[in-house]
TrEMBL record:
Keywords: Oxidoreductase. It comes from the Bacteria. InterPro entries: Questin_oxidase-like. It comes from Nonomuraea rubra. GO terms for molecular function: oxidoreductase activity. This is Questin oxidase family protein.
Length: 348
């Protein structure tokens, strides 16, 4: 992590805005700038933000303060977004951030679908930044992430802990599609309980016997989802990014948590990846063409994403580089190139 103060400046600008805009689209700014700074693109952050923040809404006001005794009734209530943001801001001022995360992780994890998985993704970026350097601005970002997750808390239907024998690649391939793909993610996730084969497909993943297996399996989930993006992204090139970035966010959060919470993290990450896949995967894959091969050094694929400018492409590149470093598979880099061909670039 580059410690020039650029991330703090960017967070400062973004914390004047809300976690959502234009209804309930997620504010990706904090996630994208954390990735940009970490990959050494500090010089591009404020230029990118100049265009992005113009789209955002103001920070929402609270209506009724939350306390430790009444949080359950407010969980998953987007009308209490301002109250949740204020609650976690106060929590992180009064208690160590790891203690707050440890307390709330088991409470929030069952609602991992929150904000189309952006609650956990934003949390993963915030924790990753805090593990590098702790300061007030990064603590505030964790509070914003947890507050957003709590307000949009949403469980995934008919999901039990994995109990099968399939590895992540085969498990993703076995996930059935929701029948009605005419509307947004809430409509699609609402169909899961009635989809034939859904419960069996999510149970098919091989479970982790301990924390170390959970960590390894999470990496395999992110690897499989990223490589699958190359041939399946046309189903929805924006939304299918999250099948890879949600498991990556959990993977990056677990080092800040006690190992006895890691298996639950794996199970929830798989639920999220499977749900996004069911909601948006195309009926058939397409071959990966040679024109998608990345010709340069691996690290420079992130520059391609920054030049493209879309926040989803930037986040996918961040995850894809992790996948490439673990696997050496050039298709991880080709997935980023694929995203740039399917997602419209941002003009600056």
């Amino acid at each position: 992590m580059n410690d020039t103060g650029t991330l703090e400046e960017a967070y400062g600008r973004l914390h004047r805005t809300g976690p959502e805009f234009d209804g309930w689209l997620s504010n990706h700014g904090p996630m994208a700038v954390e990735a940009m700074v970490r990959h050494g693109y500090d010089r591009d952050v404020h230029r990118w933000l100049d265009g992005y923040v113009a789209r955002l809404d103001e920070l929402p006001r609270g209506t009724s303060p939350l306390d430790a005794g009444d949080w359950r009734a407010a969980l998953g209530d987007p009308r209490r977004l301002g109250d949740w943001l204020a609650f976690f801001d106060r929590e992180l001022r009064e208690r160590p951030w790891r203690a707050v995360l440890e307390r709330w992780w088991p409470r929030l994890l069952p609602g991992i679908a929150a904000g189309a998985t952006h609650g956990v993704i934003r949390t993963g970026h915030a924790v990753h930044a805090l593990l590098q350097l702790q300061d007030a601005t990064r603590l505030a970002e964790l509070g914003q992430a947890l507050g957003y997750w709590a307000a949009r808390w949403q469980p995934i239907a008919a999901f039990d802990a994995p109990s099968g024998t399939a590895g992540p690649k085969r498990a993703f391939a076995g996930v059935p599609r929701v029948p009605d793909q005419s509307q947004g993610i809430n409509h699609r996730l609402g169909q899961l309980a009635e989809v034939p084969g859904w419960a069996a497909s999510v149970a098919a993943l091989r479970p982790a016997a301990d924390s170390e297996q959970a960590l390894a399996r999470l990496a395999e989930l992110a690897d499989a989802a990223t490589l699958r993006y190359l041939t399946h992204a046309h189903g929805n090139p924006v939304m299918l990014v999250h099948a890879a970035t949600a498991p990556t966010a959990v993977l990056r959060t677990l080092p800040a948590l006690p190992p006895d919470l890691w298996v639950a993290g794996l199970n929830a990450a798989w639920a999220a990846g499977a749900a996004v896949t069911a909601a948006y995967a195309p009926a058939e894959p397409v071959p990966a063409g040679r024109d998608l091969a990345w010709p340069g050094p691996a690290e420079e694929v992130f520059e391609l994403a920054v030049r493209h400018g879309d926040e989803h492409v930037i986040k996918l590149a961040d995850t894809a580089l992790d996948v490439y470093r673990r696997t050496g598979d050039p298709d991880a880099l080709a997935a980023v190139v694929r995203a740039t061909t399917l997602i419209s670039p941002v003009s600056t």
